[in-house]
Structure formats: structure tokens, C-alpha cells
Amino acid sequence: MGAGAGVERADVVYFGPVLLLFDIDGTLMLKASREHAEALYAAITKIHSLRERPAGQVEAAGRTDQAIARSILTLAGVSAEQIDARARDVQMLTCEEYDRRCPADLTERVAPGVPEVLELLAARDDVELALVTGNYECVARRKLDAAGLGRYFPRGTGGYGSDSEDRTDLPGLARARSGDAPALGTVVIGDTPRDIACARADGCHVIAISTGPFRAADLHGADVVIDMAREIPAALKRIPGLG
Fold it and tell me: What are all long-range contacts of 177-180, with beta carbons under 8 Å and residues at least 24 apart?
């Protein structure tokens, strides 16, 4: 994939650098969401004066922080109007709570091979690295900085759970922040069916990685499914038009 690589779909050909949009939890990092979940729940509890944890399970994999908060609060009987009115307060307090809880060093929770792959990709002039994550941006930045990965993802780029409750909005927002990068020249890299869905909703390519809670068989619909981060450069070559 050189600087003039073409990205083809039907009769459309794109020439230019490729935007790689990385998910965080389950993709760049493993088992790094405990303090994050605690911070979000602490913020929800304080802002909405919840007296006890609501009954019922809330699925978190691949969802935005805003969507997770809404599900928890709905189970607790909080109205949609109240949830919307205090959403910004929940976000800000989550940032504070996570900043207190986040370990100073999260390098042990970085997925195997990720630092080496990011270093390799960052050195290339035919790709750009950014994030697409359901984390609030403040949480994403704090988490990656503690993991030693923040320097690969410039501020002012990416799409975050603080931008929209709907994850399908995030690739388009990230593309806009990277100079309106075309969807045909964009690849989402994530570990859940929701990563695949958000990429497809925006017309992007997608590489799914089975390092999170889903097996490779659950990740159908991706251009390529891989088992380890070190396979990302080879996977890019397997996407039609990016090879």
C-alpha cells in the first residue's frame, strides 16, 4: 500500500493515504475497563442520586459511555428527559472520577503486539492513525497516556463517546477531523460487532480482531478478521483496493 494506493468500490477509485481508526478496549488494550466502569457508575450515582444499583444486566461491549449510562439510568427508572438534561454533568464527573481511579501505569494492559504495530504504522507516510471509541474523550486520553500509547493519536482527531451516543456517528466525525478523509480510504479496527456496524454505516472498511469478548466466528461482516494486533499490516493488504 503506497502513497498512491487505490481504494476501489464498484467504479470508484480513491488515491491517497489511508485513515486507520482504532477502538481502545479489547483492541488496543485488554482488561482496562474496570476503573472506567467504576468511574461511570460513580458519576451516574452521584448526579442522579441513585440509592441502589438497578437490577438487570447492561451490555457494554462496543457501546458508547453515553449509551451505557442511559441504559443503567433507564433501568433505575430515570426519565429520558432527566437523562438528557444531566448527560453533560455525568460526562464531566466521570472524567474526574476516572482521573482519580486510573492507575499511573497501564502498560501491562496493552494488547500484545500493539506498541510495535503502532510504531510501524506511525512511521509510514501512507497512513494516518486516529481513534473511534465509545469512551468519553477524557477517559480515552487518560487511559492511553497511562498505557504509553497516547502519542500515536493526536489531539483534535478521532471520534469519541462524548461526541455522540450513537456509535455509528463516530467514524464520520473522525473522518471530518482528519480533513474530510473519504470513507473509501478509511479502515475501522475493532473487536466487536458494533465496531463492524459503525464502519459499515459510514461506508468504511473494517478489520475485526478477536482479542476482545467475541470470537472470530462472531465477527462476520468485516473485510478481514484477525487474531492478533501484529496481523494488522498484513490484513490491510488483504482489503480489496488497499493492497
Answer: 177/130, 178/19, 178/128, 178/130
